[in-house]
Amino acid sequence: MEKRIRTLVTLPTARLFTSDKQEAVWGPLTEHIMQLMEGSRSVIVFVNNRRLCERLTLHLNERAGYEMARSHHGDVAREQRLEVERALKAGELRRLVATASLELGIDVGTIDLVLQIDSPKSAAAGIQRIGRAGHAVGGESRGCIIARDRGQSPECAVLARHIAARSIEAARIPRHALDVLCQQTVAMVASGDWTAGELQAVFARSYAYRGFPPERLEAVLEVLSGFYPFVRPLIDWDHSSGRLTRRSATLMAAIMGAGTIPQSSAYPVHHADSRIHLGELDEEYIHESRVGDVFQLGTSSWKIQSIRGDRVYVTEAGNRFSEIPFWRGEGQGRTVESSLEIGRFMAEIEARMEKEPGPAITGWLMEEYCMDAVSAEQLVALLHSQKAVSVIPTDRRIVIEQFQDDQKQQHLVIHSWFGRTFNRTWLLALQRHLERKLPVRFYSNAKDNGIELVFPGLEGLPQDLPGLVRGVRSSDVGALLRESVPGSPMFAAAFRRLAETSLLLSRSFTRRPAWQRRSRSEERCAKRCLMPNGFLLSRRPSGYA
Known about the structure:
The chain is α/β, with parallel strands linked by helices.
């Protein structure tokens, strides 16, 4: 029997007049969530990051006046997560706020309703999450996507339509990934002797490595066999016989370095008295914390008693004021295909606005894109507001706006619907170009819907700032990226991750401080020679045949 999925896109009603800024932001959201949950026995509220998970749980419990909800995410200790799952399945816990940690593979019993805060970023993730409700033969999955601001409405509407139709994105299989190839090569040699030709024949049978050039495999073998002094050898390669044989470190490297999940830099949190493991905190957050600070984790407040080199000890803090910790690197961007569809959706609304009255457009959005009346009206109002000052960005139109804020700072906003990956790449080229042209430092940020540049006043700035952006032409982008990428923090993080996955940076079962891994990565990166997909290579040593 086919399972039905009912999806609704909704917006909380904002309070226009309040003296409490926190209440202005969280009051309408928590009240809206409470209204949606009325009449439901058990509800899962999905969020996209751990900080929002902890923060929303805190505000829901404050709104209810008791511990109505609990949080579930990857940095809550496994024992705590299992207890939350047991309580939810047994009916003792009726409200749960969770990240993707509860998306797959966990039996949580009967769920009446799923609420998704902000866009799930993909139809596949939305189907998995909303499919948690009514998870039975012949059951109906009911879910709401709550956009916290109307700027997210277009993305939520397009995804809601796909979720209701159970239409997921096309799967992308990585091609010729050298870091995984490196792992497989070391593991195969650890189990027996091979030749390069035999390895090539095996890899050619894999869909991901079909047509893989033999010269690239040879380059991988050069790195793994220690032809470069800055990389430890993991296998032996006898050129006279062509045999690849194991070394003493081969087997251990294959076992300890397996997998593509980056090594965590989180600090484990333990109870100071019982030594029970409570969860994980981001290393950067710990570096900014001090003994005596109180933070929120798993709906409880904890006071830092001591910070050791490999863990944090805490004690209960009762009902004292606590801050919400942050975890870096949780953002997930849209695919280019989804971004283009959202741009086409905006273009279609714009065309309808020229021919049809507002109520007709609102009705169309409610019928075709699963929006309620408030969210549909807010989306139409957003586009009218945009047209009042400029034009609407679409899949065929990028809009650049400039304005000055109360602090006399100049803002340049590039409305680009092409997703975070595209916009971040474009921003790297823009930063390099603007650094050459401008004598002042500026702030920049790129997200799924565009790029923001903030300049400190008008002094030293040209009159035509948008003209500087248009000065980056397609013919210049390649050279600008080659100059800017090596100094980018994103490059350093990606380089370290690929080096670990490729077994060029050893892993261990004990926690290795992130600063130490960064230092070792930078030593190798300083060789200034890279092979495609992030591998380290330098010129061949003199005399090498």
